Amino acid sequence: MSATMTQPAPDDESLDIFRRSASRFFEAEAGPDVVAAWRAAGAVPRTFWSAAARAGLLGVSVPEAYGGGGGDFRHEAALAYEIYRRGLDAFALPLHNAMIAPYLVSFGTEAQKQRWLPGMADGRLISAIAMTEPGAGSDLQGIRSRAVRDGDDYVITGQKTFISNGQTANLVLVVCKTDPDNGAKGVSLFVVETDQAPGFRRGRKLEKLGLEAADTSELFFDEVRVPAANLLGEAEGRGFYQLMDKLAQERLLIAIQGLGTLERALAETVAYVKSREAFGKPLLEFQNTQFKLAECKTEATVARVFVDHCTALHLEGRLDATTASMAKLWVTEAQCRIVDECLQLHGGYGYMLEYPIARMYRDSRIQRIYGGTNEIMKLLIARSL
To answer: Which residues have CB under 8 Å from 166's CB, separation 6+?
Structure first.
């Protein structure tokens, strides 16, 4: 990775220290046996979240005034890449750190920041964002969950699905309609502290094609009463615009995750074809193997350069929604192509789940769906033509 990603700029020693510290933590605390236990349990335990908090990995870009690390998106990018490079995709720390905390940092009142951000940084609060519903996915304006003002409270009613951290989270950012007849201007975001929310319940942990250790769940809100102070910001109707403001970073983060996976797939496959022999010589000596890996290496390099470019734009506040959509679209498509080619080079062993490439094949598929499907990315890009 280049300077804007996992390798620091020459004069940025603190970023280098952070990257190496994160790497040492995952090396020590998230080895293959630990990750296998996560998959068997169907979730990453809260004890691991707590250990990550003690290691300084939670709330990395939250301002120090609110208990965070005071870093910026470079730190979140390095952390997300490290997680995916190591095959720890189910650990939804990038979601917690770089997708949910920024809503509170950017749009929360001072009281809301003081109330929730310190807990997100020290591990007392694990977060989720509840957007998707059974009848509304990429079309956020189609949601049906309602929040109705009742005195000093709001009463939330609705159902959400495909919620990452759904079984673990005790702080959920919920997308609701406060004015169903007002389109995008009728959407608001609410913070629900689930430990203090009668009427909130978790549905089943969903069985998925991959990411078995990610606790993706249904959530139900049966007249959940929350204080009016839990409305994010200071007025109703701002939720859709808050979501749109943060989607560029979310989509760039998905591209960074894809980059970590595709580079891992390439490294695993190069090592495999060097050691595996057929017809008396290593697989790497066959021209087909060389050509396939040359193609994959080229795509991986293009992906890296594009992601670094987008990251630099984002750090300067110049990453637009169209370019972020391009990053999400191109990198996740490249990720799935490269992982597929790498699996093929493993032959029959590539189909065996004991080999990392098989798990990467299953786990990668969701990248083209969440954060807005890649078909939606194409629509957004087309609007700029």
So the answer is: 128, 202, 203, 205, 215, 216, 217, 218, 219
Chain centre to alpha carbon of residue 305: 20
* 133 and 158 Cβ atoms separated by less than 8 Å: yes
Task: Give the tokens for residue 171.
Answer: 């702080």
Q: What is the pLDDT of residues 43-81, one digit of tens each?
A: 999 999 999 999 999 999 999 999 999 999 999 999 999
> What digits encode the pLDDT tens for the residues 293-351?
999 999 999 999 999 999 999 999 999 999 999 999 999 999 999 999 999 999 999 99
Nearest to 96 by CA among 25, 28, 38, 163: 163
Question: Encoding tokens for residue 234?
Answer: 């200071």
Compute the distance between CA of residue 311 and CA of residue 248 in angstroms, rounded to an integer.
11
Between CA 133 and CA 131 the distance in angstroms is 7
Residue 15 has which token pair?
């970023």
Between CA 296 and CA 273 the distance in angstroms is: 14
The CA distance from 60 to 30, in Å, is 19
Written as six digits, the tokens of 99 are 């997708």
Separation between Cα atoms, residue 267 and residue 286, nearest integer Å: 18
CA distance linking residue 142 with residue 302, whole number of Å: 36
pTM over cut 0.90: yes
Q: Is the pLDDT of residue 215 over 90?
A: yes
Q: Minimal CA–CA distance to 163: which of 172, 176, 154, 150?
A: 172
**Which residues are annotated as catalytic?**
250
Distance from CA of residue 66 to its chain's centroid?
22
Domains and CATH numbers, the chain: 13-125 (1.10.540.10), 128-235 (2.40.110.10), 241-382 (1.20.140.10)
Q: Among residues 162, 96, 90, which one has the least CA distance to residue 360?
A: 90
pLDDT at 281: 96
**pLDDT attached to residue 139:** 74
Helix (H, G, I), strand (E, B) or coil at 344: helix
Over 226-285, what HEC string results?
EEHHHECCCCCCCHHHHHHHHHHHHHHHHHHHHHHHHHHHHHHHHHHHHHCEECCEEHHH
At residue 202, the pLDDT reads: 97
